[in-house]
Structure formats: C-alpha cells, structure tokens
Write the structure tokens for this entry.
Amino acid sequence: MQRGKPVTKMLSGAVPKRTPGLRVCWMFILGVIFLSSFGLAAAKPKPAGKQEAQPAASEFVGSETCATCHEEVSKGFATNPHTKMALMHGKSGITCENCHGAGKAHVDGGGDVTKIFNPAKASPKEVEAKCLACHAGAHPNFERSPHAKAGVSCIGCHDIHQSKEEALLKAPQPTLCFQCHADQRSQFNMPFHHKVNEGVVKCSDCHDPHGTFQANNLKTTADQSAICTKCHTDVRGPFVYEHAPVKAEGCTACHTPHGSQNARLLNMPNVNVLCNQCHSAVAAGAVHGQGQGSSDSVPCTSCHTYIHGSNINPAFLR
Amino acid sequence: MTFIGWYSRLFKGQPPSAGIRRIAGGALALLLMTGIAVAQTTPAPAIPAAETHVTVPDGYILHQAIDLGGRMANVNGSPAMYDTLVNMQSGPRVQGETFQLRALPGTKNTWVDNLSAFGSGFGGDPYSFARLNASKGKAYEFSGIFRRDRQYMDYDLLGNPGIPTGYSIPIGSSTAPTGSYAWPQVNNSPFRFNTVRRMTDTNLTLLPLSKVTYRFGYSQNVMQGPSLTPSGNSVAGQEVLLQEYQRNSTDDFFGAFDWKPVQRTQLSYEEQIDHYKGDSWFAMAPQYFTVQEADGTKVALLDSYQQFVPFGYSTSTGAFTASGCNATSMNDKSTVLQANPNGGLPIIDPACNVISSYFRSQPTRVIFPTEMIRFQSSSIRNVTMNGNVRYTNANMNLPNYFDRFQGLDGTIRSITFKAAASAKREVMAADYGIVWQLSKTVSLEDQIGYSNVRQPGTNVFTGGTDMVIASATGQTINNPNLSSCVFTTGNTPTCTPTVTKAPGSPLPGGSNPFGTPLPAYFGQRFTTNNATVSWDATPRSTFSFTWRYQDHLISEGQGTGPGTAHNVPIPANNTNSGEVTIHENGGIFTAALRPASNWNINGSVEAIYNDNAFTPMGFRQLRHYRVHTIYRPRTWATVSGAFNDLERHNNTNNNQNFPGNTTPYYGPLNHVDHSRVVSFGTELFPNDRYGLNLDYSYNDVYMADNICFQGAAGVMPGGTVAPAAATASGTLCGPVAAGHGSNTVLFGPARDFQDAPTQFASAAFMFAPIKKFHSDFGYRVNSVKGSRFFTDAGDVNGSLVSTYQTPFVKASFTVHPGLIWKGEYDYFGYGEGGRSGAQYCNANPALALGSTTAPVVLCSSVANTAMSSATTYGFTAPRNFHANNVTLGVHYEF
C-alpha cells in the first residue's frame, strides 16, 4: 500500500505489509541530514542567541560585582544550569546580566532598583519574553498555554537562581502543582488514584505545563493516541475490533484519571451500571446505544473481557 | 548537605517511603565504577572521601548518602484491601541513596561536569525509583529514570463473589448422602492483578547549545505478572476463571536533530519507532480446580464459576438435578461426587461436564514508526509561531492465535482452534499555532489542529479441531473411542471416523465461519481551530477570549463484512457502521488578575455546544467554571483556593438528523454529570522551628442517565426469584429484545446514577524545638458518603460509602552532622458501609425514579438471610482494614 492512500479498500481482505522502500528512503534522508549537520555545527559553533545585539561591553559589570551585594543569590551558582557553564569553563554561559540586563547603571546608582530589570516586579509577559528568548525552542507553545493566559509566568514555578529540584523547580512535583491546583490534591488522596503522591507518576508525565496543542496541557503519544497508552500499552491498539468510544471519546469516557472513589478509576461504582449508561434501551436506535443493558450479577466484563478492543472477537469476548 | 530523601517527601503530604528500588543498586554500582574510571584518567592524586572506598578524582566534589532501615506492618481486617490500597509490608529496607559528583570550577579534561544519582527503594516496597543525570558543558546532557510499580488489586467490582460461603453439596447419593463437600468460595476478585510495571526513560542530548543539536532516547515499559480474569464464555461456551500471565512491553527508540538556521528559529526532524510486544497467555486458575477424576486429574466445574447450582445442585434450595452431567452415561444419576478413600478432593462421576485444562496464547506485535517535522520561530518581530507535521503507519500482527479446551462438554472431549489477525493505524496529523502581538496590550493568536486516523483490520479463524466421543453412549471423560472433527472452511466439520457433529459449535458468537475473514474499520478525523484575543488591560490584569471550533468525524465499520459502508452517515437504527459527525462550538473567557504583587487570582468560564454526540453519555452542552487564587501575605505564608465546576448534559434523543430519517427514537437520554470542587489550602512556615500545613476540599461528583436494562429469572442471588416483567413506560423504554436467556425481562425506566460527595482534609505540623530534632505529625482523611442505583440485590456500595484515614508521626534526631536517626508511625484505616441492593431487597416496590411497576425482590424471598434491607451489607462483608506501620531508619552521609 502506498503511503497516504486511503485504506478503505483493504476491508475485504488481510492487511498487506507496508512497503519497506519508503521507510528506507526516510532513513537515508535522515542519515544524510544527520551527517551533513555535523559540518554545519563545526563551521558555526556559536549558539544562535549569541547573534543578538547586546549593549556595549562597558555597560556590563560582571557577575563578580553582582555577588558583592547579592551574595545569597550567587551561592548556588555552582550547580545552577544557567551559570555553571560560565563558572566551570570560564566561557559561554549565562550570568546575572544575561537576564537582568547590563548592571553598570544599577551599580553606579548605588543599587538603584529602577536601573535593573527585576522579574519579581515585572509582568508575566515581560518575564516570559525574557526566558523565551532562549527557551522558546523547548517550550514553543507556552504563550498559547492556559498557564500563560492565567498569568502564571516562568518564575511562578521555577526558582531561577537556585533550587535542589530538577529543572530549578521551586518545589518537587506534585507539591508545586498542588499550590495552585488545590482542587486536584484531594483526588490524588482518594482510595483509588494514580500514584502521584507516591512518586511513581509525576504530573508532567501526562501534562506539559508549558503548553501543548491539546486541551488541559495534555501530552499525546507520537501517533496522536491518548497519553494513557504510553504506560497502558496493552490498550493502545490498533485492534481489529475497536471499542469505538475508547478511541472516539477517550479514556475519560469511562475512567477518572486523577483519582476516584471507584475501583479501577471508573466513573461509576461498578462495571454494569457504567455499561448500562450507553447500552440501554433508552438509547436504542440512537447512535451507539447498543444493547439493552444488564442486571446480571456478574460484571459485563466477565464476558466482554477485552472491552478496550479485540483482535479476535467483535463483541470483545476474547 | 542534608538530603534525607524519603523523609523530606513525607512532610509534603505524601505517603511513606516510596520504597527501595532495585535498579538504584545497579545505577549506584555503575556510578561507582564510573567514578573509578574517571579517576584513572586523571593523573593527579585523588582526594579520598571519609568513610568510603571510592577514589574521588582531582577537581571534583563527591557527596554520598545512604538511608537504611526497615518497617514493621501490622494489618487487621481485609488483607486484600490493604494490599490493594497500601501494600507496604514488613522487612528491612534500603530507603534511599544519593551519589553526587561535581567538578570544581576550572576543572579541565574531564568526561563529566556533573554526575548525580538518586535511588529510593530496595527490599520489597511496591514502588522503586532511580535517577541518573550527567552532563558535560556544551558537549552532552544525559538523563535516565527508572520507575517500578507493583500493582496489587483484589477488589471485586461487583462487591460480591458469586457463591457465598457456607454451602455444600452431597457426597454419595443425594437421596442418602454419605457426607458433604463444602463448595469452595471464590474469594478473589475475578479481576485480581498482581503485576509489576517497570518504566525506563533515557535521553541523551549532544551539543545542546550548538547550531545543530542531536537528541536520542530510549524508553521501555514492561508490565508483567499474573492476574485473574474470567474467560468470557470463550471456554467451551462457558465462563470459567482463568489465570492470565501477562507480559506486555514496549521498546521506544527515538532520534532527532534540531537545526537553528537563524536566530530564534529552530527546525527539528524526529524519528520514533515504538515496538509493542504482547505475550500474554491464559490457563485455568489453579484455585478453580475443586474436584478430581478417578485417576487423580484435578478438574473444575464447566459452567459459570459464579453460578449457584454447581453440577445441578442448588445451594439455595437443596434441589439436585445433575444437570451438568450426561445422565444416560452416569452410573448413578443421583450421585455426582464420591468420597476419595485416600483423602483429598472428592471424585466426580466421569460423565459430568468438567474442564481439565485450558490454554490460550495470542502473541501480538505492533510497530509504530512515526516521522515528525517540527518548527518554531520568533524571528519575525512581534510574531511567534510553531507547528509540526506527523505521520505514523503502524502495523499490528497476530499471526498465531491458539485456543484449546480439554475436558468433557457433552460429547466433546477437546476443542482447538487457531486464528490470525492484522490491523493498521495510519495517522496524518499537523498542528500550527501563531501569536501576533498586535500592540503593546493586545495580542491575537490562532491554533489549528488536524488529525486523521484510519484503521482497517481483519481477522480470520484458520482452522479448528473437535475431539468428539464417537459412540452414542458412554459419554464420559475416559471414553477412548473418539472422532476427530476438523474445521477448515465454514462451520461444518469433517469427522474421522464419521459422527454427526452440529455445525458452528466451537466458535463464539459474532465470529465468522472458519476461513472467512471478518474485517472491521475505525477512523476518526479532528479539525480544530482556537482563535484567541488577549488584552492586557492594566499591568495587573489580562483578559482573553477564545473561540473554539472542532469538527470531529468518527467512522466505524464493525465486523459487517466486505463492503462495509463506513463512510456514509450512520443509517437509522444501525449502530455498527457509518459515520458520525460532531460539530463543536464554544467560547472560553479567561481573566488573570494581580490585585497586589503577592496576590494572584485567575479564572475562566467555558461554554461549549455540540450538535451531536457519539454515545448516549457523550455531552451536548458543557459549562466549565474555574477559579484559582494564591495569596502570600508573608514570605513564609501562602493561602490558596480553587473552585472547579464542570457541568455536562445531554437531554436529547441523540438521533442522527439527516434527510429521510423518520425512525422514532426512545429517550430522552437525560445524561447529566458534574464535578464540583471547592478547596482551600494554607502553608505557614514562619521559621525553622515550626510550621503548619492545612488543606480542605469538597468534591461533589454526580453522574446520571435514563436507562432500561435487561434481567432474567435466575440471575438473582439464590436463583429462585423470577421477577415479573416490567411494563414499558411511554417511549422511554423500547421493546424487549432477546438477550440474556429466555426469561428476559426489561426493567425500568430508571435513573442510573452515582452521587459521590467527598470530603478531604489534611493537617500537617512541623516542630523542631532544637536544631538536632525534627518532627512532623499530621492527619489525612478522605470520606465519601455516596449513593447509587443498584441493579443487583447482591451488590454493595463499596468504596462509594467509605472513609480512608491516614494519621502519621515522624521524628528525626541528628546525632552528628551526616548521621540522622529517623522514626515514623503511620496508621491506615479504611472502612466501607452503607446499604446494599436497596431497590431489590426492599418492601418498597419502586426503583429510584420512574415506573412503579418495576419488579422488586422482597427481602424474605432471597435465600441468603444476610440479604436484608436492615443490614449494611450484602453477600460480602464490607472491605475494612486498619494497619499500624512503624518505619525506622538511619541516614548517613559520607
């Protein structure tokens, strides 16, 4: 089958194998680009950000001067990813004036706070602009993210000067996230919950706080399926017989991901009353109102064991 | 440096130690060896660290710490429930270890500037964690993380095992038994899990600050272990309890490069290949073998494992019919079981239907290659944009499905069949987003998304064999006179020697005959646009409004054979094949305010309307209100609050509006769900000696739908109750359809609902009167007082009416710098309550809502006397436990 060609004609028979030629072609192109880019890297080793126009060199005082007054701030620079490069190798690296601007006027003014950029006093957009000047490549969606719209800037979560946490976070996950999202804390304390408090799963496993193209900062897998299937690989498919709502409405049609009063993070107390919501005579004739529900004393999933999708049986029996 | 790992996490409102992680040992060993290797490349004399054999290379600072200790756990009540929720057991533990190697400024000719590893959990706790980070200037950055999660789950979703305790069936003749055999109760949830998930993620970035950067990654996710699962009527058409041995894994390889051709512009190409391996296989659950044949072969009842009439013996009435046996072949029709003269399991008549073994394997492979091209640019003044294009062409292959039953099923001694399946997933997706800073205070942005998924697949049963007892009589498990009936095409077998064989018996319902493919198709396409205008009204306030539009096309052709018309609007009353289109329009208003430099408040109002829904519980109207605020009156004081209200409705008949559709629909669906959360929190840490952390949340979770549902005489506990058929009320319930047996009746209309008001509160105090002593103590409680609709008299509220509380006390004493003794006490208390099966075991002949003609099972008619409206439980006692855990440990830095 050719790439991009509609696959509807394949219904009448077995699925053919993919032509390997195109894959090889892609890999060849990748290899050529990979190798040639080494040359580019060697020819122009300076980072792109270095090309930006800077104030005159005489306007800068150096981080050592800053440290004379701001000793507490400079204490953690040895382990700070921003400054360690400059301290470690004495060359390319970010120091105080890369973010706060040239400091000569500030120093000459006896520490005049109006002569230096102070993120703590700046608007979220000003802070974002400063940080994204270097980090836009890593966080290209931030300006359109819910956090940006809510006025949560970089320094709301990151302690730029010093932190014991990874990525200079002010506090570890999920403590940091719960400071604002207090409404989610209780869900992770319900009897059944994803093990976020226990440290097995982090908020950032499913959400990218810097924004994504999805709602609620949700990540997706490479093939655009829900992030849930990165860990719950057995329900990712593709299945010959998909339980269509699983893919069309998502995992949250039946599960509450953060935490639930119900086992298996189900939206309803047991499987049967959950299934009856759709598989009811009330919905007979309506779109996907299949079946008429059941009051059987055994769970629906006792028979429909492959409820997320099956490769063998259209009724998900095996 | 004080890095006390598990202890510090506890104070942040987290359960006790994440345990000790085996992989951290490997990581530590690797690190130690790495450190030695680094030392060997450095000619300068090493600086020895105190109390360690590690040679510290010149120019480095080395720090190590380890936490050793153990836990004593005392559990009372339900151990299954404790393991499901807590699963912290007794034993010695390595509670954590830290290794940090950092080059001093100016150090030259090294392989690494920073190397750090942290591990937590060795020795048996359910969670393990290990992390390894390394970096070298502009050369590389490496990060690796390993997580291990043991999942124990033994919680019956219906809250009641099928066969209650206290029943027995006669040994010897039922008319003159010589003894009785206590029929074993299935105590485990039919969906028990005892699995382990191991997640590894590694990332390597080369030349991170260069014009061209290379990124590589490898991730592995493995889930394995035993679990229980019902057979799903797939074992000789019966439902037996199986044990599934799972091993599902993915290996994810990733390679990419980023090219920054001009300032503030980046192009990326990424290739990701995911390989999924599903190697689960099934066998009989060992605990299900409850009797034996005369030759000692352990066998199990071939019938529903949750039914109440094993071998025709009704546990509730005492009636015995031997219905599960071939009566004409029995030696004594009134005798099913004989006593075993050697002790052990009783011996069953060889003419009774049993299962002696079952095996199913379905090794599945899926490969997901994905190519991605991304770009990001803010090179144009006042404009930032980014986007991506992605293409995935995944292939699933199940070449050898194998299924075999052995035992006795009427005249059949064994059933074997094979199948093959394949499917594809082709995804073409693209996203683009742009922000234009129109003026100093106004910006416009737009975000476009497109995703098109096509997923065809097919399955075919490639062959099968039945071993059938050839003679008309002597239909017993030990009859050697067998015929082999082979299926190759269709459902009519060829038997050698010739016997009469009913067609189609081996295959479950819904499957095509042997040799005939049964294809299917699923696809969906999203086209989304979000357009936003933002206004910075003042330096302290920002308002934005987003208009959202989405077109969602869902296409399905489910098992209806060649020529499935999945690309036309779904026909009336056809729930299998066709297209459903949902157009979504909505608006989101967001406000972000900073009334003061130490007070932030933001909120949003979202309203969305869909002109259709895919399922009856899919929403047509959505309203979402959110407010978050955080106030820091002092540097040491934080007060926060949140309100989150999500409301969704669908009060239509959800029919398809297309020309010519005049089919009357039932309904309305009247779907309602909401999640309303109000929460407050405060943190007060005025100094290093004491602090306070308080949190409270109220969750109001509700979901309801109109339903009608099937039932049948005999499904009720006791098997003796035959509820009268309901009268369809109005147009809400449709006609009764055949389904679950000949005694099908239709119940309803009723309101299928769950109401789960939940309160959560936590308080944590920190007290450190002297520098050497530190303590934390607190209390957490989660309490649900919910209610629900019962469809089954044996059902219970379960966790919907439960209280889970976890008070704790922790203390540490610093003997001298780098040596800390620690102790911790945790209490875990969980209890369930509430009424059970209220509507069916009640004198009030009314369901929760709707018809008063609905059938009601009177309490007195239910065999199990425990089933009473006055009791707080059904057949299963509430799942309660409490546990006292003491954890001791020592933290040592060197």
Q: What stands out?
A: The first strand of chain B starts at residue 47 and ends at 48. Chain B touches chain A through 249 residues (CB under 8 Å).
